[in-house]
UniProtKB/TrEMBL annotation, chains A, B, C, D, E, F, G, H, I, J, K, L:
It comes from Stygiobacter electus. It comes from the Bacteria. InterPro entries: Dodecin (IPR009923), Dodecin-like (IPR025543), Dodecin-like_sf (IPR036694). This is Dodecin family protein. Transmembrane segments: none annotated. Gene3D superfamilies: Flavin-binding protein dodecin.
Amino acid sequence: MSKNFEIIELVGISTQSISDAIQQVVLEVSKQKKVGWFEVTEQRGRVNSEGKIEFQVTVKIGTKINE
Amino acid sequence: MSKNFEIIELVGISTQSISDAIQQVVLEVSKQKKVGWFEVTEQRGRVNSEGKIEFQVTVKIGTKINE
Amino acid sequence: MSKNFEIIELVGISTQSISDAIQQVVLEVSKQKKVGWFEVTEQRGRVNSEGKIEFQVTVKIGTKINE
Amino acid sequence: MSKNFEIIELVGISTQSISDAIQQVVLEVSKQKKVGWFEVTEQRGRVNSEGKIEFQVTVKIGTKINE
Amino acid sequence: MSKNFEIIELVGISTQSISDAIQQVVLEVSKQKKVGWFEVTEQRGRVNSEGKIEFQVTVKIGTKINE
Amino acid sequence: MSKNFEIIELVGISTQSISDAIQQVVLEVSKQKKVGWFEVTEQRGRVNSEGKIEFQVTVKIGTKINE
Amino acid sequence: MSKNFEIIELVGISTQSISDAIQQVVLEVSKQKKVGWFEVTEQRGRVNSEGKIEFQVTVKIGTKINE
Amino acid sequence: MSKNFEIIELVGISTQSISDAIQQVVLEVSKQKKVGWFEVTEQRGRVNSEGKIEFQVTVKIGTKINE
Amino acid sequence: MSKNFEIIELVGISTQSISDAIQQVVLEVSKQKKVGWFEVTEQRGRVNSEGKIEFQVTVKIGTKINE
Amino acid sequence: MSKNFEIIELVGISTQSISDAIQQVVLEVSKQKKVGWFEVTEQRGRVNSEGKIEFQVTVKIGTKINE
Amino acid sequence: MSKNFEIIELVGISTQSISDAIQQVVLEVSKQKKVGWFEVTEQRGRVNSEGKIEFQVTVKIGTKINE
Amino acid sequence: MSKNFEIIELVGISTQSISDAIQQVVLEVSKQKKVGWFEVTEQRGRVNSEGKIEFQVTVKIGTKINE
């Protein structure tokens, strides 16, 4: 079994907060893969059709290979 | 009417959280302009005279020209 | 007394939010030093043994010298 | 009259090419202001509803103040 | 179904132009996945054996998860 | 009145020094707006027709909104 | 068959050297895919439980699509 | 003969397109040196005296030493 | 005695010039430590209460360990 | 006891290799502090008076506070 | 005659100021080549054997080819 | 004689290690020029036709002018 890690890059979406957007996407990945660490690389967003702020946070996630 | 966008750069201030500082400044702009998207470029802050953390978040906001 | 500032770099840890991790580490420093400003330089984290997100936020803090 | 320059940041849109998106937005500004130079800072885009590529090119434009 | 996006990174090749290299690789992906946006991150290339310029453009593409 | 700040980007010109080019452009703005802070982002220049060095210093200036 | 390339991002682990960590992860990938090139993007590490340095080197690897 | 490469940095000029400016400068170099690869590092330009866009593209070119 | 160096980060303040702000902080450190080199990382500032420019220059200083 | 970490920045010196320069400086710190992780930020060097290559590698080291 | 430019990178040395170090190296080049523009990329320095600050400023200089 | 330095950029090639690739190219230059310092700017590579890793390390080398 490899001791190396693979890095995948995802964007979490939330209308609550930056931290919630991160929580969303990291926990979704951790249901299928062993997460070693994550790093926030970009914080963007928009005003949605209901006039609310939608946070779009890009996260790089390090996952164990063949775990 | 132009299909191009103009980018303005603002700093939102909040003693609650990073997300609140972003919310403050983006919603203030969206009252006067059509906001396409925003991007966080810097997260600074200070300890104010009451000993509380004051978040200062710099945001680039893309706004429709001549909307 | 010097009018210059020294910059120290610390990592705040929190299972609640990015903003809480920043609050933790800046207020801890401000008990011992006069904090002029702070800047977030990195936002990492991991999933801890209880399956919860742990935010690790790196902050540069400007402190008065010989205050 | 000031000899300084102001920098404005705009996004040009084109379904033809990167160069056309730049041309669009720089020539639009040069109708109202004296353009000293421009610099491309970001090249993004999307696939529009007709399945065509839409280039979105961010450009910083240096314009003479009070010209 | 997740509202999050995954980012994949590809290099488009073309002997015509930078824009054509982007078009190649983004339209190829959009046959299999719902493309939300793309961003150009690197523009390299070489002179091929026929003495022609070959553009190699690296593009990050945001695609809907489980669409 | 908003507690937020707007950031404008200007280029100061001087044949004396980098610091003089900064002084020129920041003091010119401070006649019309409340300046919170400034940051130097680029230092370019040229040799003018009299063979003298002309410094062109790009500065981001944080100004109070609606002050 | 596509002439484009896909870029994957992996972290190689070694207690010997930076170069060995790169060798590990690139050769592991080249058993399954045609490797065009690689680029080192980050060099981190830790002191493991036996008090030895463990190098963790992040590498972007360009692989031929559908080869 | 050395197996190493030297990198030279040039700016291509064109009133047609970014790609044409790159083509201009890389092919000019390849008449005198063996070009291994090139990378675009900056895309600037101006509006010339005839009101046309002039693209100024900075390119790093890897050339074989003593070829 | 270690042959390694430690890097400390300080901000020099001056109302005269960028160079004077650097001079201030580097010479202050060199009274207590053996300075190997310094590097300017940031140039900020403000307009002080007397309407004068105050330069705030961040400098990384390499100092000999246990000298 | 704080759960936060402090980051110190050091330069390791070696005439053998980059990895040896890193080993030198990280293991020296780990004799006095609990090292959480390290990251290489710069790789410089010189040709010393004996004509040998001297590697100078800058490393940021995360250490437990009050451990 | 080519309309392209070549970029050379030099380090100017001065014990007076940053601006003087730039002046030194740009004017030295302009005796032999037609200088189009220059850009400061790094500002380092040291304390010399007489205890004075020596500024070492790296400058990229755009020069006309075959002028 | 000028006290300034010129910076040249080269790529060292080695199938052994990163450090060997650096050694190769810096020592080759130091046979013809007085080397002041070097800095690694990029670490790339490929898998060659014999299935071995080939390290390609880009190095900026500061050399004395007119030494």
